[in-house]
Amino acid sequence: MNKKPTHRLSFARIIGTDEEGNDKLGSAREIGAIWPRGEGKGSILRLDHIPVELTRHEGVLFVNEIGAKS
Q: What one-character-per-residue DSSP string does 4-37 give?
């Protein structure tokens, strides 16, 4: 069984807007990981940190596959 996470979760806060009204994001910070469950039956999401802005919908959550090429 693979005991390493398959994905990393990062969160970037909204820090303002640009001249066109689009959200500007701050630097993304890693807040958790996704771990595979046994026998391929889904995954487990573990958050090490929950930014208050996440609960207020004031940012973006990124899910990045570990080992994926950019």
A: S-SEEEEEEEEEEE-TTS-EEE---EEEEEEEEP
**How many domains does the chain divide into?**
1
- Domain assignment of residue 58, yes or no: yes
Tell me which residue range forms the domain holding 22.
7-65
Domain assignment present for residue 70? The answer is no
Residue 43 near residue 6, CB atoms below 8 Å = yes
Specify if 18 maps to a domain: yes
List pLDDT tens digits, range 2-59.
589 999 999 999 999 999 999 999 999 999 999 998 887 899 999 999 999 999 999 9
Joined tokens for residue 40:
């391929």
